[in-house]
Every structure is written in structure tokens, then in C-alpha cells.
Amino acid sequence: MISKNELHSAKYHLVYANIANIGQLESKLRASNIDRSLPTLFLSECVLVYIDVEGTDKLLKWISDSFPTALFLNYEQINMTDAFGQVMIENLKARDCVLSGAAACANVSTQMNRFLNNGWSGGDCLDMSTVYKCLPQSDLQRIERIEMLDERELLDQLLSHYCLAWAYKDNIDLGLDTISIS
Ligand SMILES: C[S@@+](CC[C@H](N)C(=O)[O-])C[C@H]1O[C@@H](n2cnc3c(N)ncnc32)[C@H](O)[C@@H]1O
């Protein structure tokens, strides 16, 4: 069944929800017959930063309370307290786009603590500059040639203001604690 903003089939459900409204999120997932006992991956890309820290704390706590085996992968801003970060915040605010959750994007610790303080067992957070350097060098050279990259400092500055953070709960010992990037 396809409606204006959802898609439902026997085994696949695409639903909308305000993820700051746990009641709505929970009832949408329940209506989709989600099995919380199964290992579950949560992915977010530049979304949590739009929700105030109290709201994301509640969301992350609800997930860790509800899903015994889960991995959360979050890509979003980091180092938002420096000059570059402040310019980004102000530019977006000028366009009525407020980053209400920017406080959690101050550094690696603030990114990780919101998981660790809300029931998650562990995880890590790397800025994208670090992640970029871990990618296969031959791929980087090929892509940089295609992109005709000549502004390396600008790329580094941009990459150092985004991060990949992950957190896990692993009640069935899947080995989620061994995930690393190197
Ligand atoms: C910069 S965009 C990121 C787009 C996203 N990575 C994607 O692939 O669609 C920010 C997204 O956050 C979503 N968003 C912000 N606050 C939200 C909330 N409380 N509940 C659900 N989505 C939210 C917006 O709808 C928007 O699609």
C-alpha cells in the first residue's frame, strides 16, 4: 500500500515519524510489526543535530531500552564550537534553520557521551578527516583525480567538521564491540 508519505508491503515498511515524539515513533514501528528482539541497525545522517539535546537523549534512551541488540550509526557535524562551526550555525540560522542539537556536536566526547549516558554499551567517534585517511589510497587518488581536487586545505577543513559515530548494545555477543576503522 502506498500513501502520500508511507509505503507498506508484507515485509517492508517505509514510515514517517517525528523522531522527537517517541510515542508517535513507537506506534509507527509497532504498527509495522517490528521485532525488537532482532539485531537492529539505526542510521542517521545530519538529522539528530536538528533536535534539542533533551529530545535526542530521550530518543537514544528509548532505543537502548527497547532494542537489546542494536547498532546506531550517526553521521553529522562535529567541532561546532570553533570559528568554522559557528559560521555554519549562524549561516543556517539566518535561513531559519536552527541546529538545536549543536551542543552534542562540540567534539568526540559530546558525540559519544550522549550514547554512553543513555544506556549504550560502547562505540566510537571519528572525524571524517580521520575516516578519509583510512580509505584505500588508490581509491582516494582515483577520486581526487576525477574531482580535480586542488583545494586540499578546504577539504580537510570540511572533513574535520563532520564525523562518523557509532554505538552498540550487544546482548547476544554478535561482536559489535569489535567494530573499528583503521
Ligand atoms: C539535512 S537533512 C538530512 C537528510 C537525510 N540525510 C536524508 O537522507 O534524507 C535533515 C533531515 O532531518 C529531518 N528531521 C529534522 N528533524 C526531524 C525530526 N524531529 N523527526 C524526523 N526527521 C527530522 C528533516 O526532515 C530532514 O529530512
Q: Roughly what percent helix?
A: 25-40%
- Shape, please? globular
CATH architecture of the largest domain: 3-Layer(aba) Sandwich
How many structural domains in the coordinates?
A: 2
Strand order of the largest sheet: 3-4-6-5
Q: Which small-molecule species are bound to the chains here?
A: S-adenosylmethionine
Number of helical segments with 4 or more residues: 7
**Total E-strand runs:** 6
Overall residue-averaged pLDDT value: 96
Q: What is the CATH class of the largest domain?
A: Alpha Beta
Q: Over all CA atoms, what is the radius of gyration?
A: 18 Å
Major sheet summary line: 4 strands, mixed
Q: Could you tell me the strand content as a percent range? A: 15-25%
Structural class from helices and strands?
A: alpha+beta
Q: What's the CATH H-level superfamily name of the largest domain?
A: Vaccinia Virus protein VP39
Unreliable segments of 5+ consecutive residues: none
Enzyme class: transferase
GO molecular function: protein C-terminal leucine carboxyl O-methyltransferase activity
Catalytic activity: [phosphatase 2A protein]-C-terminal L-leucine + S-adenosyl-L-methionine = [phosphatase 2A protein]-C-terminal L-leucine methyl ester + S-adenosyl-L-homocysteine
InterPro entries: LCMT1 (IPR016651), Ppm1/Ppm2/Tcmp (IPR007213), SAM-dependent_MTases_sf (IPR029063)
